[in-house]
Amino acid sequence: MNPNEIKAQRILIAPLNWGLGHATRSAKLIRILKQKNEVIIASDGASLLWLKNEFPDLKSIEFPELKIKYSKRFGAAAGILFRLPHFLNSINKDYKETKKLVDTFSFDLIISDNRYGVYNENCKSVLLSHQLNLLHPLSSFISSPFQILIEKFDEIWVPDDEIHSLSGDLSKPETDLKTPVYFIGPLSRFTYSTNTIKKDIKFLLIASGPEPFRQQLVDYFEANFSLLKDQCHIVYGANSILKKACSENITRHVLLNTEELESLIKRAEIVICRSGYSSIMDLIELKQRAVLIPTPGQSEQIYLAKYHSENPLFESVIKDKDLPSIFKKLL
């Protein structure tokens, strides 16, 4: 199914609230689909807040909060495994809430961005995901139940091309899936322009991911930015409380909309961010130089940082000890 060809349908789009990446890439689909269809948004927490700010004209629904605990050693997948009953209960809550919404709104199509309980047997249900292969140290314990979850959907849409340019092995399932998989192309909320834009920001840090790693990243770069004369900016997501910047050359932002963040990125010589899939899609769309720093213990981000390390746009920090030398090289 080509999203551009869908028309005259009532559609539920529900991204996972785990960072803003799922919400921001769903935004591209929302913009495409709302031109010819009625679109209703459902999520929770920071993702719902961001989507409501981005699409104030669309109806939005709050889903039950899915709290994913993070294992400092093995990442989120291990956190899910260790708290499997809670995770399955959260999926069941999403499933029950989706059934109520289908009964109320008579949806023609459901698009779930990694919310595995957002599907319904009486409505065509699509899973939007770039990760069909977990590539995790604990994958032998997780792969089978993971496959059962994704095969409950009628289709899987992968935001990449058919040669896996951006996702690599992540979008190559270990075993054949019963559910048909379609590659719908990258989904960046930004648009590349050939217009010349003045690069008046030296470094732009996009601070995201779970605590305490996010704050550790901010502390490290604030200390280093304050030693420079160049203008540096830091962007925070929702639910962030900003303190006064420690130096006059540092500017802070919180909960920027797409237009505002796109402008900052285009003005920056170098972006510093986590190596999340949505971030990489955005950076490649804008042809933007960047430093990719995977969240510790998050195997998907570590893989993506390594996979894209040969791209001339990127410097990938695979080991923490390499960060000072890479930062110094970019000065």
Describe this structure in words.
The protein is an alpha/beta fold and 331 residues long. The chain has two domains: 181 residues, Rossmann fold (3-Layer(aba) Sandwich), CATH 3.40.50.2000; 130 residues, Glycogen Phosphorylase B (Rossmann fold, 3-Layer(aba) Sandwich). It contains ten helices and 13 strands. The chain has a seven-stranded parallel beta sheet, with helices on one face. Strands 10-9-8-11-12-13 form a six-stranded parallel beta sheet, sandwiched between helices. The protein starts with 9 loop residues before the first strand and ends with a helix. The model has no long low-confidence stretch (mean pLDDT 91).
Any idea of the CATH topology of the largest domain? Rossmann fold
Give the strand line-up of the largest sheet.
Answer: 3-2-1-4-5-6-7
In CATH terms, the superfamily of the largest domain is Glycogen Phosphorylase B
Q: How widely separated are the two ends?
A: 46 Å
- Report on the biggest sheet: 7 strands, parallel
Number of domains: 2
Using only C-alpha atoms, the radius of gyration works out to 20 Å
- What's the count of strands? 13
Short description:
This protein has 331 residues and is α/β, with parallel strands linked by helices. It contains ten helices and 13 strands. It has two domains: 3-183, Rossmann fold, CATH 3.40.50; 201-330, Glycogen Phosphorylase B (Rossmann fold, 3-Layer(aba) Sandwich).
Which descriptors would you attach to this protein?
Rossmann fold; 2 domains; single chain; alpha/beta; 13 strands; six-stranded parallel β-sheet; 35% helix; seven-stranded parallel β-sheet; 331 residues
